[in-house]
Hints:
5-stranded antiparallel beta sheet; single chain; alpha+beta; 5 strands
Amino acid sequence: MTTDMQTRDPLFIAEDWIGQGRQVAVATVVETWGSAPRPVGSHLVIDADGSFEGSVSGGCVEGAVITEALDVLQSGRAKMLEFGVADETAWRVGLSCGGKIRVFVERLS
């Protein structure tokens, strides 16, 4: 992997942030169904200040995931999030594409 690719990889960014003493959570797409903007394995890393890198949804649910990640950082308890067509929160956060995603959020530091 090139250094340039490493600087853009959310997991390498998380490692760097942890090295700087920042609290970090990672959100990982663990399941998709139908039309989903990001594949399984996609990551979004979030620090306690709300800074983030990466993507789990191409922008449509990132705000909700970041909010939940801040809660995970505070509580230390991981969460499984689900956004989809049958979930009224899907429309609220912009997931009107007809798909479903499950995102696991956990604290790394």
